[in-house]
Specification:
The chain is α+β, with helices and mostly antiparallel strands. The chain has one domain (14-270): Clavaminate synthase-like (Double-stranded beta-helix). It has helices spanning 26-31, 34-43, 56-66, 96-101, 139-144, 148-155, 163-168, 176-183, 217-231, and strands spanning 18-21, 46-49, 69-71, 85-88, 119-123, 134-138, 158-162, 187-191, 193-195, 201-203, 209-212, 237-240, 247-251, 255-259, 267-270. The model is unreliable at 1-12, 80-88 and 264-276 (pLDDT under 50).
Length: 276
């Protein structure tokens, strides 16, 4: 994996598309409009501000102005729902831990409509705050790494996405009532290849992807699994180990993310934060 401290000119992790700033650049960042920020996210898929210690009110105003999805302790409090659940994350306790860490549990705010403005944000407050490491996978960099013939093949494909597919990675045999509740969430048939501003392309390949349209199921599973392996290989992934006060902004249209368990905590919570 890429180093936690990835500089502007680094060529590792996310195809090098990571910008790191110090706190002196925070004010300009927070007053920038949506077009200004999205233009920068076209080239730098993830912006990291170490020890930003961003005040809550300006941060929430910033997220609202950008129509962004705000994650983390500084996000508006969500009322717990029955859909929140705990996962055993210690391989010594459960074999499921290794499965999860090597599975396709990668989320995309873009696919589920949680970040209609194309921006996602996570911030950690000051001392005493703890967050699990977060990995970011850049589907645009992965697309750029494909051969032209492979790009042409993918460009013609569509994928059925559904909220309930994500849930089945964690609970293989849910109660019938729960499954019906999950499946009541909207499903969507979307192009596999997503045009991005600036002429780039991203891949809609997060963990809600169910099946390639008009492709036999087993063949589809093998194809999607192989493609996810390509997109989430170390060359296209940045792992961020959080420090107090950190602020991370990413392009939700081209970057998938997943939280990892802390080694010192055998259980961590997976809660779906969604816009009201």
């Amino acid at each position: 994996m890429a180093s936690d401290e990835v500089g502007l000119h680094s060529s590792t992790g996310l195809g090098g598309a990571i910008m790191t700033l110090d706190r002196s650049g925070l004010a300009d960042l927070l007053i920038g409009d949506q077009e200004w920020l999205l233009t920068r996210l076209e080239d730098m898929e993830v912006i990291v501000v170490r020890q930003a210690f961003c005040p809550v009110k300006p941060l929430r105003s910033f997220a609202e102005r950008l129509d962004a999805m705000l994650h983390g302790p500084l996000a508006p409090a969500c009322v717990p729902t029955p859909e929140d659940y705990l996962i055993v994350g210690d391989p010594k306790v459960s074999a499921l831990a290794e499965y999860l860490q090597n599975s396709r549990v990668w989320e995309s705010d873009h696919v589920m409509g949680r970040a209609p403005g194309g921006v996602s944000i996570m911030a950690i407050p000051g001392e005493g705050s703890i967050a699990t490491p977060t990995e970011f996978a850049c589907t645009a960099a992965a697309w750029d790494g494909l051969a032209p013939g492979e790009q042409r093949e993918l460009a013609s494909l569509s994928v059925l996405h559904g909220f309930w597919q994500d849930r089945l990675y964690h609970e293989r045999e849910p109660r019938h009532e729960a499954l019906m509740q999950w499946m009541a969430r909207q499903s969507a048939e979307l192009p596999l290849v997503q045009p991005l501003p600036g002429g780039r392309h991203g891949l809609l390949i997060d963990d809600t992807a169910i099946q390639l349209v008009d492709v036999e199921f087993s063949q589809s599973e093998a194809f999607l699994g192989d493609l996810r392996n390509w997109v989430t290989q170390p060359a296209y992934v940045y792992r961020h180990t959080w420090q107090p006060g950190d602020l991370v902004i990413w392009n939700s249209a081209s970057v998938m993310y997943r939280d990892l368990p802390r080694p010192d905590n055998p259980i961590w919570k997976m809660a779906q934060s969604r816009r009201g």
